[in-house]
Structure formats: C-alpha cells, structure tokens
Amino acid sequence: MSKFLGRRARVLIADDEPEIRSVLADLLGPAYDCTTVGSAEDALSHLREGEFDLVISDIMMGGMSGLEMIPRVLELSPDTVVIMISGVQTVESAISALRAGAFDYVMKPFDLYHVEAAVSRALEHHTLRVEKRRYENYLEEMVGQRTAQLDGALHSLGDAYRTTLEALTAALETRDLETHGHSERVVNFSLRLGKEMGLDAEQLTSLEFGSLLHDIGKIGVPDAILRKPAALTDDEWVRMREHPLHGQKILRGIEFLEGASRVVAQHHEKWDGSGYPLGLKGEEIDLNARIFAIADAFDAITSDRVYRKGRSYEEAVAELEAFGGRQFDPKIVEAFRRIPRGEWDEIRRRSVEARELKAASRRHGQAAGHVLVESGASAHVN
Fold first, then answer.
1. What is the pLDDT of residues 278-294, one digit of tens each?
2. 187-221 residue pLDDT tens
3. Whether residue 119 is found in the same domain as residue 216
4. Which of 22, 98, 153, 292 has the most CB atoms lying inside 10 A of its own CB?
C-alpha cells in the first residue's frame, strides 16, 4: 500500500466508459484511494466536495470534454495533477492536453505498466509542488516575521533617536529661555504643513528632525550674545547669524540626519535671496527648509515673548501672505491657508499637553532617583 504524505493518495478517475473506469480502478486501487465518475461534471462536483491529488480523465466524454475540464480542475484545486487518456493517437491531441494544463498524456489502448509509471510520476510531481508551496509559504512567513522584528527594531531605534534629539534640544532651550517649548511646537506645525505639501515618509522624517534641531548651531553662540537682554550690535549679529553653519557642521557625517542638516543650514534663507548664511534663492532652498520657515514664523508671531504678547492667527496669516514671494515660498503659504485654523489651534494645544506630560515624567523620575539615593544613604549609615 503506497503512502502519500502520511496517507493514501486520492485519485479521481473520470471516463464515460465503465470498462475503462473499472480497469483503472482495479489497477490503481491496491495502492491508492480511487473514486470513479462517468463525466467531467461529476468530477468537478467531487473536487468541490473534497481534495484529490490526481485526476485521470478521458479527453472525449459526453457533455463537457476532458480538455474543457482541466482549467476548472486547476482553478478548484491548484495542486491537483491531471493525466489525460484518449483513443485519438495524434500529436495534436497530446499537445492540446499539455497546453491546457495536463501533466501527462496516455494513449488508448494503454499499457498498464505505462499507466502505473505515469501515475507514479504525476504523484511525485504533486508532492514536489506541495512541498515547494509549503516552503514558499514558510519563507514568506519567516520574511514577514523578520520584517516585523526589523520594523520593531527600527521603530525602537527611531524612538531612541528622537529621545536623544529631544533631550539635546531641551538642553539648548535652557540657554535660550525666550524660545521655551518653541522646538516642539514648530516640529508639529512643520509636519502638518509637510503633509499638506504631499511629502513622503522619508521627507517627513527629515523635516521632523530638521525642525527639532534647527537651532542646534546656537551651541556655538556665546551666552553673552544668546542671552543678551538688549539689542545686539552689528558684530554680535554677525556671530548670531553663523549658527546655521555651526549646526550643519555639528550634524555633518551623521547619515540619518543628512536631510535634517539641510533644514538646519538653510532655515534662515529667504525666497528672494536676501536670507543668510548663503543667500540662496527660490527653489535653490531645500523644500523642507522652506516649509519649516513658514511654520517657524507662524509660531514666532503667535507665541508670547518677554517683550510682547503673541499676536492672533489672523495677524499671523496676514503677515505670511504679505511676505509670500519675498521671505516665503508663495505655494507653501497657499498650502498653509488651506489648513483650517482649528487644526493649528489643536496642534498647539496638543504640543503644550505633550510638553507638560514629558516635564511631569522627568520630575517623577528625578523624585524617584532622590528616593533611591536617600534610601541607599540611610542603609549605608546604618
């Protein structure tokens, strides 16, 4: 008794001649689980109800022909193998059967040894086909698992990058109290505007990191200038305007911040070429830097400063429009106007809440640290 993947192979025999069905069933029955039917229609009915590994069918039968049946068999059961039998001994009929999807072709009157050999080859082919599909499914599953693991690792790495960059930005803001919370707000403003401009995921990431780090170059500006309460002198303004290039140098060579470094280096360039440090003009300026410039200006206009209160949304829009084509890319100003005011208000509210939550988390962590230190000190004294 032949075993097939741990069971007897199931063979469906379709022929409108009872004698042929009987001969084939007697020949194959001892080794395989055989079912016989008298038409292609009955064969398809059985295939809908159960799985068969091999179909042996006559080409010419009353009703649907064997050739017509082949594609329907393969549609119902793609792994099933088909052998055609026929009394028409022509090359054309064999070719037609193979083109239709049959695995093999046996002529009537057939040699029983040849039938057994054809069945054996067909079932071996079936086994290889099933194993190949299972292996492909296994590979696909493994690739899916590894991809999910890699995505998770990259996500964790991205979170670590963001946490590090946010800490660096927070440290910088302790030197420039006037812009407290500015970086976090302007990141969210920039991302919303970037989405409106149709940026892809990679561009949005560069915009996010560039917005977060836009003033990183101020690390190179002396406190006497950065925190000066009075107006800066001409020489001091020269030093202050060097901070975009300082920032670019700090980020140089960090591959994942390559796009962000362009925002850092160019965020003070102006559409008409009157900006600094390079005097770039129009689309010479990085798109993300142009987007950031508008988000940055909007936040600056609407946020409170030591020397003034923040102005209204309407005043900010009026100023952006007034400077469109001079300081700002006019197309990005148009994109800004397409976004409802309510969304800008919501982004600001969420930014404030997120900052307060992070600050509370840091205070909680510091308090827990103090408790651990005190507990350790007490234990040491005892």
1. 999 999 999 999 999 99
2. 999 999 999 999 999 999 999 999 988 888 888 88
3. no
4. 292
Contacts by 169-173 with C-beta closer than 8 Å and gap 24+? 169/212, 169/213, 169/216, 172/215, 172/216, 172/218, 172/219
- For residues 167 and 377, the model is more confident at 167
Q: CB 202: neighbour CB atoms within 10 A?
A: 9
131 and 168 housed in the same domain? no
Domain that holds residue 113: 10-138
135 to 29, 131, 178, 307: CA distances (angstroms): 31, 6, 62, 70
Residue 81 located in a structural domain: yes
Tell me how far apart the alpha carbons of residues 192 and 202 are, in angstroms, rounded to a whole number: 15
Share above pLDDT 70 across residues of the chain, in percent, rounded to a whole number:
82
Say whether both 221 and 312 belong to one domain: yes
Domain shared by 170 and 118, yes or no = no
- Please identify, among 80, 103, 138, the residue that sits at the C-terminal boundary of a domain: 138
For residue 31, the Cα-to-chain-centroid distance in whole angstroms is 51
